[in-house]
């Protein structure tokens, strides 16, 4: 490289997109996606774009909290070299602990920029290959009959796996899966996610009852902090257990693996603080013989495209739950991953290959740090 590029300014856009319908999970209800788009500009004319989609009930971040933090983080990286990602991430996470979703927006923009400067798609920047893969589609909590109707619709659309939100009472949750299984037949795998909604005994009771119903795995049966009981639940059911809210960063990954709490990890950029730490989590998983899924919050197709590059680059990531944008009323993204029902194909354009439509950005409140 002739001369190292420098970060000249950071644009922070406040986005608001309504959901097609409220999305209910055990711990919260979501009605709109309130992302921040982070654009890191350089003196080369190239810029990188990242998305931070705060999910307050999981990471403790709202859009207002993230917005306040974003200007502080932008000041830290200003006039510095954007391609020294190792140092930039250490500075950002050293300054602002937690706030993983906000930090992931900066991380994503830096990796996008690295791809654009090197002329390579993100999966290649990560040292991986290009492969198409499938995401499931997720059904939020509602009446069991409504959930069964949705499951049939997803099956007819061509999805190869259906994810179902649970985490209420024993009887209602068992009824939900019985009705869904009856409606869609025996073939399609069902993935379930209790989002911390059960206690130890409820989890064991529900999972025991669901064992004959071809459940691929169960995400986060109990409270995020209760590692010991997650391990006990795993010992008491044949259904595979996946850690989600218990797993934010590589330190959590190490502890979960060492304690034998789960069969799978659900990595999300919004919890990990971005791709940099997500790679560390996957490496720990692989060392422990644990396979990973990459999941999402309510990102647009931009955030999901970045996550899809991560999936593509690492064969140890064997599942994808990258369906957040399907719940949104609007798709403001140009380029990026293409979805054919649940099949995801990545672009070969440099970086993650997604950008936000200019007309949409004009409607967003903007703050520039320079
Ligand atoms: Mg989950």
Helical content (DSSP H or I, runs of 4+): 40-55%
Radius of gyration: 20 Å
How many domains make up the coordinates? 2
CATH architecture of the largest domain: Alpha-Beta Barrel
Q: Helix count? A: 14
Spell out the CATH superfamily of the largest domain. Answer: Enolase-like C-terminal domain
Strand order of the largest sheet: 7-8-9-10-11-12-13-14
- Return the average pLDDT rounded to an integer: 98
Please provide a written account of the structure.
There is one protein chain. With 370 residues, the protein is α/β, with parallel strands linked by helices. It folds into 2 domains: 7-120 and 358-369, Enolase-like, domain 1 (2-Layer Sandwich); 125-356, Enolase-like C-terminal domain (TIM Barrel). Helices cover 40% and strands 23% of the residues. The chain contains 14 helices and 19 strands. The protein has helices at 56-59, 63-77, 85-95, 100-118, 122-125, 144-157, 170-184, 200-210, 227-235, 250-259, 269-272, 275-288, 301-313, 358-363; strands at 7-14, 17-25, 28-33, 36-42, 47-52, 133-134, 137-139, 162-165, 190-193, 215-219, 241-243, 264-267, 291-294, 317-320, 333-335, 338-340, 343-345, 354-356, 365-369. An 8-stranded parallel β-sheet has the order 7-8-9-10-11-12-13-14. A 4-stranded antiparallel β-sheet has the order 5-4-1-19. Helix 13 links the parallel strand 13 and strand 14 (317-320). It is globular. The mean pLDDT is 98. The structure holds magnesium ion. Magnesium ion binds at residues 193, 195, 219-220, 244, 266, 295. Magnesium ion is lined by residues 193, 195, 219-220, 244, 266, 295.
